[in-house]
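Action item from last week, closing it out:
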Amino acid sequence: MLRYFSKLAGLSPLTMTKSLILLFIPCISFSQTINLENFSMPVDSLTGTVKYEKLIDQKGTEKELYQKAKLWISSNFKSDKAVIETDDTNIIVGKGFFNYSFQKCYPRKKKKVSWYDDNSEAQFTLKLFLKDNKYKVVITEIVIPFKVGSSITAFNFTLSEKDVTAAKNKCTSTAEDRAWAMERVSEYENIDRHITETIENIQSYMSKKSEPNF
């Protein structure tokens, strides 16, 4: 499912969202240090959930941009779990999935901890709004699992401002809390980069010259 998600990239400022900027608070554990300075995730000002949004100017009629968007969807929403919820000439809405990895530590309570790569899966809602010579990409409703141990999922939750803030606040608490915070920041950073790559991938594809139909 969506192999290009494995690469990481940056993202220009997003429209109609507010950025949650974390203050400079070093997060120190026994074996690693994570600096939360400059880490941010865009947040919907109404719902408080993480939301990515970008308005892009692109030459082409609404129909031409719609056709390109459909081709991108068909090439990347290949998972059996992916669902297209709305398909109209000026809007496409679908639910997609991607796998990601992040740093996890074990055990948390002892002075010596071992760090290892853990894997998880995120669900997201993609919305493409299409008009003549421009379109908007919105990625929201990012749902990730709360994992107990390496494989047991207790519940799924939608990533929000409060989740990122919780990680920041626990950086100044106990050693166990700091380790938890480092895990979460590692996880959120990777989710952020995966989604950033998705938006840039869409933009790159939509800017290509359309091939003639035969």
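Closing note: The beta strands are 18-21, 26-28, 33-35, 40-43, 52-57, 83-87, 91-106, 114-131, 134-148, 152-158.
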